[in-house]
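ok here's the first one, seq then struct tokens
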Amino acid sequence: MKHYEFWFVVGSQTLYGDDVLTTVANRAEEMAQKLSAVLPYPLKYKVTAKSSAEITQVVKEANYDDNCAGIVTWCHTFSPSKMWINGLDLLQKPWLHFATQYNREIPNEEIDMDFMNLNQAAHGDREHGFIGARLRKPRKVIAGYWQDSDVQARIGSWMKAAIGVAVSKDMKVMRFGDNMRNVAVTEGDKVEVQKKLGWEVNTWAVGDLVKEMGAVTEAEIDALMETYRASYDIATDDIAAIRYQAREEIAMKKMMDAEGCKAFSNTFQDLYGMEQLPGLASQHLMAQGYGYGGEGDWKVAAMTAILKAMGENGNGASAFMEDYTYHLVKGQEYSLGAHMLEVCPSVAAGRPRIETHFLGIGMNEKDPARLVFEGKPGKAVVVSLIDMGGRLRLIVQDIEAVKPIMPMPNLPVARVMWRAMPDLTTGVECWITAGGAHHTVLSYDVTAEQLRDWARMMEIEFVHITKDTTVESLEHELFLNDLAWKLKYPPTAPLRGAVFFFSRQRPMQTHRPLLFFYAKTPAKKKKLQISGCISERFQAGAVKYGSNTTERSILMELTGNYRHELKYQIGPADHLALRQRLKAVMQQDLHTGADGRASPAGVFQIRRMPPVRLKNRRNCHDIQRHLQIQLSGERFRVFYP
């Protein structure tokens, strides 16, 4: 792993004079040195930023320094945030805003205006926080005294998440063959993933691996066998099977190292020219920090490598995992996780054993050698990254691993047993509702907070299933997430607008507002026409209305080549929550009242689209009067009366 470091950039200004600036610099250097002594990675003081040019320069340097994994900012004095706009707008590295101050206490006798001018972090950090919010930059905010151990632990945790970003941006995945046939969740948009996460995912022929295996020498195998004996108990007489796994491991490692790959995948359906599916070989590679995904699952392979890098000492207790079967005895509900062969020994409770057993699935000519062990007890998470079509979703579930409640002497694979949160059946319902895959990464080292930080830095959706999660609350969250992410990151056909309404004459509790999304094929510039009254039926790509105008609905008649036409019904609670979330991704119309409900009706401006034309004005008159529709030029709005 690279020798990563983080840069400490301290905000001030020239207003206070050289003496104050010297004090700020000295204190910043002191803080960086003391924090570096207790943090997992060095914190390097870089500059006391006093101008836009200084800030822009240090950000440019951070962006292009491969060893810089992120920046930590703090404002010792007041630091006018317009100075930070150009630099922060260019920032491509993770950002932590550390809201602290040099002194722990207010000195009763010493405090005067000189002291106040020097120690202005309380409002300096608020100014700094505003510009971060205004620029909508992904960032972590940690507040607390810089010498407190709990605050230092949170900074260290964020640093490890930022390391995950650095590893992700440099990730290369080697696929030996393709995916298991007909499996959906292991697929994904590799182009979009490379754009979003930085992963380069490419395929190498199994024949290339077989050729490399043929070049492995007996001396190389002998050396690796000694490593196996030092790390594991050999519980088989079939030494030839173990040596064959060593040959596979050496060949795969050579190929990955030559290409700079840190993760790999294969499938039992594509082993042409090989005697065994790599079992022990894959497990020992994972023990060295490589990521792995079975059945061609390149997403879980990369995530395994990333979580390992985020863990203790850059290779934590994280493993490729699969939910295999349940124990559904009342009061003793558990999941049993395993895989055919490939579970990393970093999660083992004791010393693993090398065994050989028959494997009836796939193209195995001989019995593969593999490590067999029980997983250790403790709090952990299981993690799944899925492609939702247009965006990525990271699903994290809290679990508590336990010592398996039975020995299972005939189960010839590594296994981990756990209690899912909030309980097994609710957890399963939540996991399936969110679309979680059957392949996961199980980690004892990486926390849900770190994964939330990582998802924020990568700007992908994050879903967390905890002890307090219910199916209803999760469905509500997923619904709102779906709306917000579609607005923020449109699908392939650009999202052009959204409209939702409440009835004015029916009670809110009995009438569900409608939310419409329209995405227009960009090749043809057609117009969206608003025409008449009120039914909730789609016919031939349009909404047709009757004559009952009391519902205050609106006709959306589509002309031209439109795609991705979606309709949702939402309740009053969703409506209120959605309004709050939309504020994070849209600009409120300048002509709207402060509460968003003044006349004209509260609106949010959203995406650009061609001019909108009103037809059949007699039917639309009431709608115009109540909603104050002002659609002109190239603007489209979200209305909530």
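and now the second one, same deal
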Amino acid sequence: MNDQKITANNGLHIDQRTLLAYISILSLWLVTRPYRGIWHDSRLYTLSALKKLYPHNFERDLFFLYGSQDNFTVFSQLHAWVIEYTGIDQSALLLTLTGQALWLTGAIFLACKLLYTPWNWLGLGLIIVMNDYYGYYIFSYGESFLTPRLFAEGLTMIGLYLWLKRYYLFSVIPIAISMAFHPLMTAAAMLILYFTYLLIHRTKTLLITTALITLIGYFVVIDIPPFNRILLRMSDTWYTLVDQRSPHVFLHNWETASFNRMIISFSILVCASRLAIEPLRSLCIGAALATVAGMAFAYFGGEILHNVLVIQIQPWRVLWLTTLLSALAAALLVSHYSNVKNWIPIFGYLSAWLLRDSTGGFIALLSLMYCVYEIKLLPYYRIILLLFFGIFSIATLSQLAVFIFVPLADLTEPSSIIFYLKIPMIAFIVSLATFSLTFYWQRSSRYQTSILALSLFGLALSVIAWNRTISASSNISISNIDLLRNMIKADDVVYWVNNPEDTWFALLRSSYYSRTQLAGILFNEETALEGQRRSQLLGELGAPDTLLSSKDLFPGNNTKTFNGSSLHFPNLILACKDQNLDWIISNEILKNGNVASSFSNNGWFVYRCSEHRE
């Protein structure tokens, strides 16, 4: 075929049309990943950075009490250096911008290596717009908040680009740095590269594999971590706690929609491998094999054998990179099938993606079947396939209408004429429109001035809409914070009900318990057991943040929400009997409690546990 059955090294030549495309891509990135400050996992990584600066203050925090995943990354030290000079909120903003710039650079390099212009632009657009959760609705690539995952992903893509350019020695550098930032994310690229290299150099790869297995076996014998965990089995108690508190780790907790997303990416990679030339062909096959291997390891090693190391490395995390590569592969499918005027696979995969929360996986497999057996099936089953896709067209178009027109309808509501809702939606529409126009008119010089003006307008709106910061700083007055810091010693442990963020970022003190601190219990059994003990102690007293989810608060009614103000401790003495707890801060006047201090303007009451012990 002499059509767009392609991969290519476009270089990074910048002309006017390319500049327009990159402006549109940057606009789409900014508007689809608004910055909301320190939230999600960025809270724990900011906490880890603060521990580098104030080790005495946080050594008794539950998250660090028995070790944490901070031992596996150099990111916390880097974050600590920036905090020391700029402050908590400013460092998060600065490092997020840096990480996102690195991420976009890696994505651009990779797309330009694998696809010709203009399909590399389409691939980048699909990466950005079609970005979705992988796994259990917690993680997605190119996150909008600060974690080492952002840096590791960007460095990994740069490493892949250098490897595809055959700069093998230089590719080791970004991949090694990525490994130092986040080993689990980097392992995804290494697994894909392993299978890709296996396809090209089978004998050499098998010899290297044998040598590595021998070396790992030696490390197991001499008890070198983390290899000494290969033969360890997670205890039943530990496994149950991880299953309850970190359900995303185990495949049996995933919903159908999570598997649909994986199936869609897998089928796109397999279909594209039949159309692409090297190096995209081998990379698609390697990514598809890595998907199967990662899921198989996760199931048999984690679900069946309860192996500690397999559970901790979470092999399913390979999905971040396979999902990203499938977006580039989708651009290849569009280029090929649009060129031969065959819209069935394009419409099939579009339907699969729009219906990814319901029947998308099945539609993707059907589209893959059509792609693989296109020549054989076309004479006999074309009408059947067209009829089948026609049945799904109504659902697809309805989903598309919801995706596009519901946000537009919001703009007509008086209540939505506010910055937070209106500007981001307009920015998204303008950015998507300019991207589409740039892609459509890429071979023509007409309208470029108008498109440039529109793209700059979209970029300006996207920049304005990007920063929607939720500050890590407390809403409690500085004078009250200073009073608390003087009252509570640096090494004291505080239980601030439903509010560990103020304990960490305002008081700079250790937190006794929160659900956030249990995020890493799969890495340490002692943390899991101690967290469970504290949860049971506080749970007996009605502490709201000891409950696993809203389902525990309102059985049989998942529509209700809970603001943490209706439950309170019936007996303060019961909580304070734990010698590890020094202070309780609650928004309730606790029964039998002597208030050491209160902030009536904020509704917080402070209790010294030493005054309430029997």
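notes on #2: Residues 344 and 386 are 7 Å apart (CA to CA). Residues 1-9, 405-421, 549-567 have pLDDT under 50 and may be disordered.
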